[in-house]
Automatic annotation (TrEMBL):
Ranges where the ABC transmembrane type-2 domain occurs: 16-253
InterPro entries for the chain: ABC2_TM, ABC2_TM_bact-type, ABC_2_transport, Nod_factor_ABC_transporter
GO biological process: response to antibiotic
Chief location bin: membrane
Natural source organism: Micromonospora endolithica
Membrane-spanning parts: 17-36, 56-74, 95-120, 132-153, 165-183, 231-250
Protein name: Transport permease protein
The keyword Ubl conjugation is assigned to this record: no
Amino acid sequence: MHRAGIELRTFFRERDAVVFTFALPIVILALLGSIYDGVYEGSDVTTAQYLAPSMVAAGIASTVFVNIGAGIAADRDDGTLKRLRGVPMPPVAYFVGKVLMALLISVIETVLLLGIGVFAFDLTLPADVVSWLTFGWVFLLGVVACALLGVAASSMAGSARSAGAVMNLPYLVLAFISGIYFTPIGELPEPLVTAGSLFPLKWMAQGFRSAFLPDTILAQEVVRSWEHGRIALVLAAWCIGGLVLCLTTFRWRGRRDR
């Protein structure tokens, strides 16, 4: 908890990073929600309303995966990680602090995105407990999976300067092939759908749509079912896989320190 407090204070001190971290998915939602127009056949769901829950998933991925990966790369590059290895703090505290920081920031990001969806695009919030529970477990599994993958991917960046580009490229590619920026996902080419289905972002977006949208929109999905069991299985598998990747690829020292 102490380390999480340090991570949060460090994050919020960088005001420009705070603004752009929260602004990116909000601006994209506002722009795409204004560009896309129309109501899906057989449902009263608009294109913007369909986009909003998907952008919550994209916001989590941006906030957690990209920020954690870039942040750890910067800590490695400036010697912070090397210094932390010499203090009594358990190594796991560093990673737990990062995950808790990402969790809180994701909550704030989600509230802002849902606020835009409700007030700008008439998105209706769930009125039943089951939908909120669905949203809750998808949110937690998604944050943990993205955080662990961000930790693992941080080793791909050779320096703090390259970290932003290294982390943003896979995020943007996955956002497109997961049907975030292209709605509905059922109209994506089959090879892209297959590729996107291998990664957690597609399943996070589908889980959030299941919580906020009526079943009448299922005609626009790849499968005419929300597939909650498969969503849980894939996200849990990525949590485990992300942990294995962290244990096998994480580096405390930068390449120049070797």
